[in-house]
Every structure is written in C-alpha cells, then in structure tokens.
Design a protein that fits this description.
This protein is α/β, with parallel strands linked by helices. It folds into three domains: about 110 residues, Glutamyl-tRNA Synthetase, domain 3; about 180 residues, Beta Barrel (Ribosomal Protein L25, Chain P), CATH 2.40.240.10; about 120 residues, Ribosomal Protein L25, Chain P (Beta Barrel), CATH 2.40.240. It has 13 helices and 29 strands. The longest helix is centred in the N-terminal third of the chain and has 17 residues. It is elongated, with a radius of gyration of 31 Å. The two termini are about 25 Å apart. It catalyses: tRNA(Gln) + L-glutamine + ATP = L-glutaminyl-tRNA(Gln) + AMP + diphosphate. This is Glutamine--tRNA ligase.
C-alpha cells in the first residue's frame, strides 16, 4: 500500500485525503468545462485526460460542461468540435451540461446578493473600474455607486435584464474588498450587458454572467466535488470560494477548486486568440489544419488518440509549468503507429526505372507483409512490372562508400521482389536523370527459397509499378514555427517565427491498394514516414498527409 500511495499524483492524493476525512466515494464527481469559443488544442488534452482519468479511476461520473457565458465569441461549431474531440480521445461523459442551463438560477442568486448588500449596480465605464482597482500594492478606490440603496440596484439590475440600457452603460459588481491584495476580490464584475444572440438561449437574455460567477456556481449546481483547473486560475480560487459561500447549503457538497500546471509543448502555441489569428490571417487553412496544435488538426495529421493519452500519462500532473519537448509527443506517435500502421509502398519524388531484361508484356503479383509488428495483420499482393518508380534520392550515378542504395554497376534488392543492377541512365537537356536502366536476377525473387534469393546485398529499396501506379499528392508537414517558444517574446509578433517550409507539396505514386484507403487508416510509407489520407481527397486525386517522420534520434528520459 505504501508503494501505491507514493505513485499517486498530488490531485489523487487530495481526493484520497478527502475520502479519508469522510467524503463519500459516491459523492465524487468531476467535469471538463471548455468554453466553446474555439477548437480544443494539445493543452486541453491534459485537462481532459486528468478529469476523465479520475472518473475512470474512482468510478465517478464526469460531466462535459460548456461554460457558454460569452455569446460574442461562442458558436455551435465549437460545441460540436469539442464533443467530437472528447469522444475521439476515448472518453464518454455522464451528462452534457451548459452554464446557460443555469442562467435563471444565477440571476436569482445575484438578486439575493443585491438584497443582502453584497452586490451593486455600477454605472461607471469598464476603464474607470479597472483604474480604481489600482495595483496589489496600493488600496483600491471605491466606486461612487458602491453604497447606493439596495432598491436602486434591484431596479437597475432588472432593467439591465430587460434590455433598457446600452452595452457598457452599467454592470453588476460583487461588494467584497477594494483593499484586498488579490485583485480578483476587488469588487469583481458579475454581469455585463451584451445584446447578442446566444447559441442556445437566443435573444432571451440581454445580460450575461461573468465566467468567475458562473463557473463555480455551475460546479455547485452539478455537485462537482473537485473542480480541477490550470494554474492561471489559482488567484481566482478565493473568489470561487467566496461566491460559493453565498449560496452554499451545508447539506450538499461544496466543490473544491485545485490547480495543476498547464502543458506547454515546444514549437506550439495554445493561446486561442493567437490560434484564431493563424486562421483569420490565412497562415493556416483552418482550425483543423494539420499544422495546428488543435486536437482536430492533430487527428487530421494522423496522430492517434492512444499516442496522445500515452504522452499525457508520461508528462504527468505537475504543480509548476514547464516546456515539454515536441520530440516526446512525436516519440509516442511513432511508437503507436509502428504497431498499427499498414506498411505500403509509395514514391514521393519519383524517377522511372526500366528493367531491360524483364519481359515487356509480363506482370506478376508479389506477396508482402502488412505489418511485421502485428502477426495478425496478414499479407497482401502488390503488382510488379518492367517499369517501376523509385525515389530519386535512392539513386546516384557515382556513389560514396557508405551509400547503400542504387548506383551504376551496383546491386540492390527491390522490397518483396528481385535484386537489380543499374547499368545506365538517360537525362534531359538540363542534365536531370529521367530514366534509369537496370537488369534483374530472375532467380532472386524474395521468398522463393532459391540460392539467388538468399544472396545478400547492401540495400533494399521500395518501389511502385509504373503500370499500376496510383497518382497521389503528398503533404509534407513540418513544424509551424522556427523557434521552440514562438510567443515567449512579448514585444515580438509570434507570426515573425512562422516556418516558411512548414508545408511542402509533392506529387508521387502509390501502390494500388491505397485506392481503398479511408481517412481513419494509418500507413507507413516504407522508408519515408507515417501518413494518413486527407479529407480533401477525391476519386481523381488522393491526398496524403505526413504524420511524422519514420525515425528520430530522440529517446525519452
């Protein structure tokens, strides 16, 4: 048992302590509370895995709760994408809830706070309110409306709700402590006027609750036992608890807010505002562009849910933020894809090779394995003929000693096929090789058991039969940024660090089996990397995205 306790992360230890101190296990409930104002990104995967992981560990329900309090930025599109992302990661929620479910209750509680002298309507502009808060090292200045009669605030608040005032004309503020060293406690705004249609409630409301007011009370209404959030909300905890104290019934569970470190990954940004700029300014093609750190972008790039979950598990739960190397994420992607990806042959920078002593009218089908890591993956037949395509980089007329691919006068094996020897080349007017001419050893077919088939040569090349080749477009993705922390320098626009080589498009050929590929299938283009079919593919043009390169020298510590 002692070893098991040592293995607990600090959030699990908090829960274990609460259980030991009398909290019933049946009272445990968690939630993942996204704001539907953008697509989820790699940073959110940590919060998702933590909350749903705790639900699985303790057999407790986990709600998916959309904190939809700002109709200016929220859309149904984002709600739909968040649902899809959470399901894709492999998690199911107990109930789907929305902060907007509680708008009436939140309003009623706000009226109660006004009646108790704990909230007031302030007619100052937001700039004046901000200025009066001052700094943590000096006392704030009280609003001239702070001590207005309760009846006035009640009347004005109702008229705010009814839409009688313009946006920005007034707000409802909690009356807490204008001298608190915690700036969040200096009479925070609870409601603002927003005459915007809400994606769920339409035009029913002309005022909307601020996040801090809605979030904790929503947790309470859902009886969430542990409200887990990132460290940026640590200074909000006293306000979270103050708001709960105003409505708490001691016969119910009081949610406990606790914070963990956000996850920052090198060469990525996770600010929704900055991600929005990438989309709005056309740096990327959308929220699900495979260069984006969004979950939908990573999925479209070919990352697997299992790889991301394993990555999050390795990163662990920390109390302090640090920068995680993107190579660690890519390591887990490779590790998972190596187990599940079908091996296929594709050539992304093709040059034609003619086997001169192979009959012109002959074609044959050769057996090759689908995945050597999976004994149940089976084999398939690939067509072979006199003319094939190989990678241009796999041939040199004159090669150095350690070049183990094809060169004039030297032999290599064609994967699952024959040993060939290059004899001569043809070039165009610019000196570029257009065709390689070779001969093959007829007795050297792989797996035939002949002496020639067992002859050792230094290299093995992948290839595609020209007669059967499937034209493909290949998107070679690289990191979107040229530096590890593109938004680290506050005075420098992060767009200055965009990698101009983040996408290269190449036209190549694949073996005919790729015709039946779906956007859910993962492939290893042998000796090139891992790929997935893109959603932009058509019957006339198959498009594949590179997920990750085949190898990396990185080894996780």
């Amino acid at each position: 048992m002692e070893e098991e306790k040592k293995s607990l992360n600090f959030l699990e230890q908090i829960i274990e302590d609460d259980l030991a101190n009398g909290l019933g296990k049946d009272k445990l409930r968690f939630r993942f509370p996204p704001e539907p104002n953008g697509y989820l990104h790699i940073g959110h995967t940590k919060a998702i895995c933590i909350n749903f992981g705790l639900g699985l560990r303790y057999g407790a329900p986990v709600n998916l709760r959309f904190d939809d309090t700002n109709p200016e930025k929220e859309e149904q599109e984002f709600v739909d994408s968040i649902r899809e992302d959470v399901k894709w990661l492999g998690f199911n929620w107990a109930e789907e809830r929305y902060a907007s479910d509680y708008f009436q209750q939140l309003y009623d509680w706000a009226v109660t706070l006004i009646k108790e002298g704990k909230a007031y309507v302030d007619e100052q502009p937001s700039e004046d309110i901000t200025a009066q808060r001052k700094t943590p090292f000096e006392d704030g200045v009280e609003s001239p409306y702070r001590n207005r009669p309760v009846e006035e605030s009640l009347d004005l608040f109702e008229r705010m709700k009814n839409g009688e005032f313009e946006e920005g004309a007034m707000s409802l503020r909690a009356k807490i402590d204008m001298n608190s060293p915690n700036m969040n406690m200096r009479d925070p705004v609870m409601y603002r006027i927003l005459k915007r249609a809400h994606h769920r409630t339409g035009d029913a409301w002309k005022i909307y609750p601020m996040y801090d007011w809605a979030h904790g009370e929503s947790d309470y209404l859902e009886q969430v036992s542990h409200s887990l959030c990132s460290l940026e909300f640590e200074n909000h905890r006293p306000l979270y608890e103050w708001y709960l104290d105003q409505v708490y019934d001691n016969s119910k569970v009081a949610p406990k807010q606790r914070e963990f470190a956000r996850m920052n990954v090198s060469y990525m940004i996770t600010s929704k505002r900055k991600l929005q700029r990438l989309v709005a300014e056309g740096v990327t093609t959308g929220w699900d562009d495979p260069r984006m750190p969004t979950i939908s972008g990573l999925r479209r790039k070919g990352y697997t849910a299992n790889a991301i979950r394993n990555f999050i598990d390795r990163v662990g739960v920390a109390k302090r933020e640090n920068l995680i190397e993107i190579q660690l994420l890519e390591f887990f992607v490779r590790e998972d894809l190596n187990k599940v990806a079908t091996r296929v042959m594709a050539v992304v920078d093709p040059v034609k090779l003619v086997i001169e002593n192979y009959p012109e009218d002959k074609e044959e089908f050769l057996e090759t394995e689908n995945n050597p890591e999976d004994e149940n993956a089976g084999t398939r037949q690939v067509p072979f003929s006199r003319e094939i395509y190989i990678e241009r980089e796999d041939f040199m007329e004159e090669a150095p000693k350690k070049f183990f691919r094809l060169s004039l006068g030297n032999e290599v094996r064609l994967k699952a096929a024959y040993i060939i020897k290059a004899n001569r080349v043809e070039k165009d007017a610019d000196g570029n090789i257009t065709t390689i001419f070779a001969t093959y050893d007829e007795d050297s077919r792989s797996g035939s058991g002949t002496e020639a088939s067992q002859r050792k040569v230094k290299g093995t090349l992948h290839w595609v039969s020209a007669k059967h080749a499937l034209p493909i477009k290949v998107n070679i993705y690289d990191r979107l940024f040229t530096v590890e922390q593109p938004d680290a320098e506050k005075d420098v626009d992060f767009l200055n660090f965009i990698n101009p080589e983040s996408l290269k498009i190449q036209n190549g050929f694949g073996e005919p089996s790729l015709k039946d590929a779906t956007t859910e299938d993962h492939f290893q283009f042998q000796r090139i990397g891992y790929f997935i079919k893109d959603k932009t593919s058509t019957d006339g043009q198959l498009v594949f995205n590179r997920t990750v390169t085949l190898k990396d020298s990185y080894k996780p510590q």
